[in-house]
Amino acid sequence: ATTHRAMWEKLDLDLEAHDALLEVLGKFYGDIYLSQNNRLQGAEYLDFVLSEVHGLRIQEIQDAKANGRKVIGSFCVFVPEEITLAADAIHVGLCAGADAGTELAEQLVPRNTCALIKSFIGFKMAKLCPFIESSDMIIGETTCDGKKKAYEAFNEIAPTYVMEVPQTKSPAARDLWKSEVKRYLSEVESLTGQTITAEKLKKGIRIANDKRRALQRLTALRAASPAPISGRDGLLINQISFYDDPIRFTAKVNELCDELEERISAKEGVAPTNTPRLMLSGCPMAVPNWKLPYVVEGSGAVIVGEESCIGTRNSRDLVDESAETLDDMIDAIADRYMKIDCACFTPNEERLDNVTNLAKKLNADGVIHYSLLFCQPYSHESMKINNVLQEAGIPMLSIETDYSMEDVEQLKTRVEAFVETL
Ligand code: BJ8
Predict the structure, then answer these.
(1) Rounded to an integer, what distance in angstroms lies between the CA atom of residue 398 and that of residue 380?
(2) Is residue 1 predicted with pLDDT exceeding 70?
(3) Nearest CA among 17, 54, 51 for reference residue 34
(4) Region 326-354 average pLDDT
């Protein structure tokens, strides 16, 4: 721990505030995760990664930097990881899920900004995030209005390269996106001093696809009854996918899936067979935003899937691996990313089908739609999703909340009432 302190000091973190954050996080993790029954053996990996997320993982990243590798931090699953990996750089997720530095953030963005945005700004301003401080390049993107305006302000305290994500799925939008993928590729080349060849990009595509395949395998196994893994652990695996080394992560998730398969054939689970099964859908839940899963699984239900960017939206689609030339690979990457059904697109009809199909595939008895307060795109879509799910005979509860713990009791009451109707 003393070596970690020296490293945090070097990264110019606010040591006192950071200690306080780690303490709260540790307690929170103990209450929400370590208290669970029938956890998988593979959960040791999750506990370890999380306990060392600001420790050993940052040390690894610092060591890689000392060997000349670069670190790229992003806030959105639109930033093509394949390209980062092709340049032998490290790709990390930066969006934050804790109520820290909110008051500071409100000096830079309006109060009626969603908690996710305030959190990443607050973490930077309060000097709490070793991942931001380790990043050689920070990537923003033009998705929702909240984010795109926030990056203008954020750029003043942390230089931010912004990718233009189109708002529609027209052919012109796809052309724009392909040109943005190419612009990102050149930017990564100049940051790293590497030339991205077809061979290197092929490898980057394979690493990212393997990670997605492991997550797809996990998603499919969660359709089993009784539920073989808790929603809390399912979410944590998806959260960790943004921090850990992708090759190690893939191997560990596949091991965990082997264990799940054994459990499923032994008909063992984390909750009895008749436990109501719920799917979460909506805004991403970044570490350590475990509030809703905690409430739901404390209300007699089990979560069987997450339709979000920290969930199936990030693993559902693969990049076609058959391309051989660099330009064909870039096309394959552009096409894969254009399938992302983020609520920032208009229209975004495919998400309606994707949510319904996933809920059916996972044998969910109901869906909880989760929007962060002040998130226009997802609160709008919550209404549409409610309609299509109703037609499909799948009940839905819409929740709007933020990162504070003030509404936990109220959420519990609503979730319990919903679970009783299932
Ligand atoms: S691809 S979901 S990661 S943009 S919650 S900041 S939308 S006001 S996060 Fe996202 Fe990329 Fe889309 Fe996925 Fe805005 Fe809503 Fe806040 Fe949000």
Answers:
(1) 11
(2) no
(3) 51
(4) 98
pLDDT tens digits, one per residue of 212-258: 999 999 999 999 999 999 999 999 999 999 999 999 999 999 999 99
Check: CB of residue 295 under 8 Å from CB of residue 412. yes
- Residue closest via CA to ligand 1's atom 15 equals 375
Residues of the chain with pLDDT > 70, as a percent, come to: 100
To which residue do tokens 């089908």 refer? 353
As a whole number of angstroms, the distance between CA 81 and CA 246 comes to 10
Classify the phi-psi angles of 273: left when phi > 0, otherwise alpha if psi is within -120 to 50, otherwise beta.
Answer: alpha
Report residue 384: phi and psi, to 5°: -65, -40
Where does ligand 1 bind, in terms of residues with CB under 6 Å?
Answer: 76-78, 114, 116-117, 143-144, 146-147, 283-284, 309, 340, 342, 344, 372, 375, 377-378
Distance (Å) from CA 143 to ligand 1 centroid: 7
Structure tokens at 4: 């970690």
Instruction: Answer whether residue 2 shows pLDDT above 90.
Output: no
| Distance, CA of 307 to CA of 389 (rounded, Å) | 14
| 3-state class percentages of the chain: helix first, strand second, coil last, to nearest 5 | 55, 10, 35
Residue 95: is its pLDDT beyond 90?
Answer: no
Query: Which residue puts its alpha carbon closest to atom 7 of ligand 1?
Result: 144
Q: Where are the domains of the chain?
A: 2-421
Return the beta strands (E) in 172-308 as ranges. 277-282, 302-307
pLDDT in tens, 109-137: 999 999 999 999 999 999 999 999 999 99
385: nearest Cα among 398, 399, 372, 373: 398
